[in-house]
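DM from R.C. (forwarded with permission)

"hey, sorry to bug you on a friday — could you get me a structure for this? deadline for the figure draft is monday and I only need the backbone to look sensible"
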Amino acid sequence: MTKVRAPISIDTALARIAGQVDGGWEAMAVHVGYQPRTVRAWGDADRDEHISLRAAILLDVLFQQHGGTGAPLYEAHGDMVTAAQAIAFADKLELQRETIAFMQENTDAETALLELSLPDAGPAEEARAQREMLQVRQKADEILTRLGRHPP
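My reply, with the result:
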């Protein structure tokens, strides 16, 4: 039975290296001093044995020595850390996005208020300033609600 593998995985990185290196899995195993079945097993997330940092570095360099561009294992680890961070800090990232949107709304309101303060400003500028200020208030209320406070 074929296992479904995540696109960001050690298995994918190892397969990329095996496809680039002359001799594939066998050459990789010889290069790091392990049996080919062990090197293949490093890509199986369900197995207890995992690739060592030393072996990962050796295999990334071997990949490059055979004309490969990049460092598949290094990149896979980085992508896996980024994915884990996105899960762990999703609420912080969402707050960051909301803060940026609030800042933009606030900037728009500041601009509208400055335009309203000009000598030749009229009803259109006042309407725009009011609209922009209400949008700032709405965005502020959304953030307050998200933070667990109910707006006044």
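R.C.: lifesaver. The mean pLDDT is 92.
me: no worries. The helical segments are 10-20, 24-32, 36-41, 53-65, 72-88, 90-116, 123-146.
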